[in-house]
Amino acid sequence: MIVLREVIGDELRRVRQDQGRTLRDVSAAAAVSLGYLSEVERGQKEASSELLAAICGALDVSLAQVLTSVTTHIVEAESPTRLDFDGASVTYARTSSAPVPV
Question: How far is it, in rounded angstroms, from Cα 40 to Cα 59?
């Protein structure tokens, strides 16, 4: 089952880490406690729309960009995949919302 707060947290963490920024830096810029931001990134707390906007502002990324990435992840996770093995078709669906390793 996909948990939206976890997917949002994963995306926020990915953006922050891609920028090479620390939790401390982003929490100060977003005016949120470091502990709370950490819980949001780990999917343990659900961010309000105001907090999500503040975090996105601190990361200099639009809320639309974050939500588009989250939506794409959810669509991909919920879409069944069809595989063919020597003429036999198999359809499977992911059962985890964990990111697929690349």
Answer: 14
Dump pLDDT digits (tens) for 36-45.
999 999 999 9
Is the four-CA dihedral 5, 51, 24, 21 of positive or negative sign?
positive
CATH superfamily of 4-92: lambda repressor-like DNA-binding domains (1.10.260.40)
DSSP labels, 1-57: ---HHHHHHHHHHHHHHHTT--HHHHHHHHT--HHHHHHHHTTSSPPPHHHHHHHHH
Beta bridge pairs of residue 39: none
Considering the entire predicted model, what is its pTM? 0.78
Domain residue spans of the chain: 4-92
Q: What is the CA radius of gyration of the chain?
A: 16
Residue-wise pLDDT tens digits, 50-75: 999 999 999 999 999 999 999 999 98
Angstrom distance (rounded) from CA 74 to CA 27? 26
